[in-house]
Structures are given as C-alpha cells and as structure tokens.
Amino acid sequence: MKIAMACMLACVAFGSIGCAWAAEPLRVVCIGDSITQGRKGGGKAAPTLSYRYPLWKKFVDAGVAVEFVGARKTGFEGSPEYPDHGGKPFVNDHEGYWGWTTQAVSDALKESSKTWKADLAIVMLGTNDKEKEKSLEPTLKAMEEIVATLRANHPKMTIVIGQPFQEWKPFPELGKAYAELAGKLTTADSPVLSAVTSGGWVSKPDLPGTCTVDWVHPNAVGDEKLATVFFELLKPVLKIK
After folding, report:
1. Residue 133 region, left (φ>0) first, then alpha (ψ -120 to 50), else beta?
2. What confidence score (pLDDT) does residue 42 get?
3. pTM, rounded to two decimals
4. For residue 108, which of 32, 11, 48 has the smallest C-alpha distance?
5. Cβ burial, residue 199 (10 Å; 0-12/13-18/19+)
6. Distance CA 223, CA 48 (A)
7. Residues 6 or more apart in contact with residue 84 via CB below 8 angstroms
8. Domains in the chain, ordered, with CATH?
9. Are 70 and 94 in contact (CB under 8 A)?
10. Which residues of the chain register pLDDT less than 50?
C-alpha cells in the first residue's frame, strides 16, 4: 500500500508521464564522473560507494519503488560491496565515467541513453573540465547538450544539476552558473532543478568531519550529504513526506 501510494503521488508530481509508469518503479539515472561512478578501491585507494547508494536507500525507506538505470554496471576498477537494504539488492546501473569531462560524457550519452529510459536524472559534472579555469562556457554548453539528450530520452524528464561542492575557484562560480542555466532551461513539462551541495562540506581529508578521502572523492560522510541534498530537493517534486 505504501509503495502504491508513493507511485500514485509520483504520477501526480510528474504529470502525464507518471500515469504511464504509476504501476512501475520510478526510473532514475545518475550521470557524472568519478563522484558518481565510485570505485572498488584497494591498496592506497580507499573504496568509494558514490552518493547513489545512500540515495537509493532513502527511496527504499520512503516506500518509493525505484529503479536505477544506466549503461554502466561497475565502479572504477571494480565495484565496492553494496549491502542489501530493506530486503532489497542495490542495482549498480549508472552513467558515471571516472575522470571524464562534461563534454566527453555528453558525447557518450548520445548513444548510451538509447539503451535505457529514465523519469528522473541527476547530473554532477565539471570537476575534470580543465578549460573551466579560463572559461565556464564550454562546460555550460556541454551541460545544455546533456539536458537536450535527456529530453530526447524522455520529453517530460525531471533533471537535477548538482552544483560542485569544492570551495576553491572556479567551483563556486560554476555552481552559480549551473543555477542560472537551470533557470534558463526549466520548463513546465521538464523542470530543471539546481542542487546546492557545498553546505557544511569539508574537503580536507585530515580535518574532523571531512567529506572526502582525497580532497575530491566523497567518503561515506560526503556521499550521505550529497544523497540528503538530492533527496530533500526531490521530496516536494515527488510529494514524499
């Protein structure tokens, strides 16, 4: 009953597309670089689960039937262990590309997005874009291409653009530019939301409460913070209490 009610509410939240999948799981695609993909780890490299795992657990706990989709099936150099939660297994499907630029991911999505369908997309990119030190325009152009590709996959898709959490230049400026881009691209049928992820973020690995294993890649604390930001942003959209 709880899952059925969540699906019915999601149907209302997403308009006409919801009615097509009200009896099916909400399909979510997470798109990004290493922060999204995660890694098995080993040796000096710490395993990273990605925010996808705690986000999935939040959907499960809320009683929302959810299916994570994507053409990629593993973490970098293999997958870490993802324990079952709520009696359900975590399906490690995603569109995370370790070390890739926004443009490279945009190019890849033009083909890989033909292999799945999604109702909701979460995009986190920009960390590996070297040109952003001089100009944000190439990154913003590639992000706009990604939104267009996602809408070709589903014209009424809800899209979340995650702002970078890094506190050094030019990441704060990129976050503001993403917020402006989201406002420019959002429509009634396909809303584009901007998620602020930098609140309370601690990048330095040896500080108390650190959110990373190496300044950039989130540890369990960081993954939980990201998942919480995305879930709280989506709760009103999905009518989750």
Report:
1. alpha
2. 87
3. 0.91
4. 32
5. exposed
6. 9
7. 90
8. 2-238 (3.40.50.1110)
9. yes
10. 1-22
